[in-house]
Every structure is written in structure tokens, then in C-alpha cells.
């Protein structure tokens, strides 16, 4: 039987009721006691890394997870991380860049209801995660949730309450699990695993809304080395009579600040070549474009890149380098 390490970090799956609402209080051992069938799937050992609500997650927690896995990588056949759902997609994306081409599965899971409730998705999600982690072809960073195995760079939380909380964006699910049976659709060849131990938090996310003032752009660029701008539709920057965004953007991009264009629309990605508001902006400011990347991967990838280099040419090269199938569509 394979030997899997379960790493508990808190989240709803570990929460119990308190007078102030749900709070993660259960230990890793207590969580596992609710799913005795796991023992028939693999050998399991547990450890408590954090016990936080995932809203409190910080990039430093990602580095802690990486260190934990790296130190124990040779000891185990795979890893299951119990995590809160609210930032799980960000963590899955970040670990995909910080632990690249992992030959061993790194599975993130959690639940919409605590594991100690009578009606909960936690027990199924946890058992399914071990079923996948113990399978022969499992590799890389994935999320296992509601019977779906989703690539770490392609996951997004799309529902706040339903058990079917996550979807795979612009990429098919890798596998499904039903009644304890694993149905695999996509497997990846094993490569050499690479660990990274640095990340930058100087990445800002700004959502374009009608009437956005140029001073907001300036504020963000003054604080961050890179801004990811969530534009409308396929992507563009307003240039009508009420807007003065272009001059502000030029001022900062001339100072080698990085601007990345993505879209507020979850599916199908951006294409700034379609409309004049996008075509000219991209060429004028040497902008990066996210294309079919998820927002979570876009943020995490830029944090990883800036943790490695501040050279503009190298940043552009790394951003457009496909890692764990994160970006597959690019014009030209």
C-alpha cells in the first residue's frame, strides 16, 4: 500500500460551531477519525501544519507547505492537504509553480460543510482525495472536490454554498471519482520535480469598473511591481472622453512596472487583438496578456516570477512559458 501524508491547514473541513461562528479547531488526527475507510486505501500519517480559516491565508503559508513537502518528499508516495475552500484555488495554483512537475501527487481538498456535521461533503471529498493520491498514475498538484480531479492551475471556486464548489476553467477535468471508483481521463508523463522557495507579494489585482479614476492606477503601481488588470470581455482599456487611464499607465510602464491584462469573464479567456480598445493598448504599453489562464494562476505565477527575477524580458518569457498546462492559447 502507498504511504500518504495528510497535512492539515484548517478550513471548513476542520471547523466546529462556536458562539462566533464556525472556526477551525479539529486536529489532523480528529479529522481522519471521521473517515476510517481511508485505512483500506493506503497507509496514512498526519501532521498539523496550520489551523486557520483560509481567508487568513498568506503567501508565507504557501512557502511553509512547500518546505513541509520538500523535507518529506522522499518519505511518502503522495500528499493530501486539507484546506479551506475560499483560497484553495490560489494555493493550488501557487503550489503548481513552487513545486513543478511533481512526480508524486499533491492533492488539495476541503469541504463546504464541517466534517462533524451529519450532512457534509467532507467525508466523501477526503476519501476521494486518498483514492486519487494512492492511484498509480497520479502526479502533480490537483484539487479533488465533489468527485472531480481538477488540475491545480485550472481550478476556481464558483459556488459559495453548494457541494459542487469548484470547476476546471478552460481545461477538462483530469478524472472523476464515483462510489470509490476512479475514472481517469488525462495522465501526464513524469518529469523531474523542481522546488522553489521564494515568492513576491508585490503583485496587485485591480478590477476595471465603469468610471475608474486614473489615480487608482497610480496608487497601485506605486505600491506594486506588477498589476493584474481584470478588464471586460476579451480585454481592453477605456479611452473615451471620461477616461484618463492611458497617460497614467504609460507613466508607470515606462518605469518598467508590469501590467497584465486578464478578463472578468471566467471562461474562454482574453484576446486583445479583437477590439481597438485592446489592440492599441497592448502594443503601446508592452502589456502581458493572460489569454486562457485563470485569475488565480495569473496572480500566483506573477508572484512566483517576481520572486525569481525583476528583469522585464525574463518576466515576459517566464509568463508565457507553459507550466502545468496553465496557458495553452496565445495569439501568433
Structural features:
4-stranded parallel β-sheet, 2 domains, 9 helices, 8-stranded mixed β-sheet, Rossmann fold
Q: Layout of helices and strands, plus pairs?
A:
Layout (H helix, E strand, L loop, with lengths): L2 E8 L4 E2 L6 E2 L3 H6 L9 E10 L6 H13 L6 E5 L5 H11 E2 L5 E4 L12 H12 L7 E5 L2 E4 L3 E3 L8 E3 L6 E4 L2 E4 L9 E2 L7 E5 L6 H10 L2 E6 L13 H9 L4 E6 L12 H10 L2 E2 L5 H12 L5 H8 L13
Mean of residue pLDDT?
A: 94
DSSP, total strands? 18
Determine the structural class based on helices, strands and strand pairing.
alpha/beta
Radius of gyration: 21 Å
In DSSP terms (H or I, runs of 4 or more residues), the helix count works out at 9
Molecular shape: elongated
> What string gives the helices and strands in order?
EEEHEHEHEEHEEEEEEEEHEHEHEHH
Q: Characterize the largest beta sheet: strand count, sense, and whether it forms a barrel.
A: 8 strands, mixed
Terminal-residue CA separation: 48 Å
Q: Please estimate the helix content.
A: 25-40%
Number of domains: 2
Low-confidence stretches: none
Amino acid at each position: 500500500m502507498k504511504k500518504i501524508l495528510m497535512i492539515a491547514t484548517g478550513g471548513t473541513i476542520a471547523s466546529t460551531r462556536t458562539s462566533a461562528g464556525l472556526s477551525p479547531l479539529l486536529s489532523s488526527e480528529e479529522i481522519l477519525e471521521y473517515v476510517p475507510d481511508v485505512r483500506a486505501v493506503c497507509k496514512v500519517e498526519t501532521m498539523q501544519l496550520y489551523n486557520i480559516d483560509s481567508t487568513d491565508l498568506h503567501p508565507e503559508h504557501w512557502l511553509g507547505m512547500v518546505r513541509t513537502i520538500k523535507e518529506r518528499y522522499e518519505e511518502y508516495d503522495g500528499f493530501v492537504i486539507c484546506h479551506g475552500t475560499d483560497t484553495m484555488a490560489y494555493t493550488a495554483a501557487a503550489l503548481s509553480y513552487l513545486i513543478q512537475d511533481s512526480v508524486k501527487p499533491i492533492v488539495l481538498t476541503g469541504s463546504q460543510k464541517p466534517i462533524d456535521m451529519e450532512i457534509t461533503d467532507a467525508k466523501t471529498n477526503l476519501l476521494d482525495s486518498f483514492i486519487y493520491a494512492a492511484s498509480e498514475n497520479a502526479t502533480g498538484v490537483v484539487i479533488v472536490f465533489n468527485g472531480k480531479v481538477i488540475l491545480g492551475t485550472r481550478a476556481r471556486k464558483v459556488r459559495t454554498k453548494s457541494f459542487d464548489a469548484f470547476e476546471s476553467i478552460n481545461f477538462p477535468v483530469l478524472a472523476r471519482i464515483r462510489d470509490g471508483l476512479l475514472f481517469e481521463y488525462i495522465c501526464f508523463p513524469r518529469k523531474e520535480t523542481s522546488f522553489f522557495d521564494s515568492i513576491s507579494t508585490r503583485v496587485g489585482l485591480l478590477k476595471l469598473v465603469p468610471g475608474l479614476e486614473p489615480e487608482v492606477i497610480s496608487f497601485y503601481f506605486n505600491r506594486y511591481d506588477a498589476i493584474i488588470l481584470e478588464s471586460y470581455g476579451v480585454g481592453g482599456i477605456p479611452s473615451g472622453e471620461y477616461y484618463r487611464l492611458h497617460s497614467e499607465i504609460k507613466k508607470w510602464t515606462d518605469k518598467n512596472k508590469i501590467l497584465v491584462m486578464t478578463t472578468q469573464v471566467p471562461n474562454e479567456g482574453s484576446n486583445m487583438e479583437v477590439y481597438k480598445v485592446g489592440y492599441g493598448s497592448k502594443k503601446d504599453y508592452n502589456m502581458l496578456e493572460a489569454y486562457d489562464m485563470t485569475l488565480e494562476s495569473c496572480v500566483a505565477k506573477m508572484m512566483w516570477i517576481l520572486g525569481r527575477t525583476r528583469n522585464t524580458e525574463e518576466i515576459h518569457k517566464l509568463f508565457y512559458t507553459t507550466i502545468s498546462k496553465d496557458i495553452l492559447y496565445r495569439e501568433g
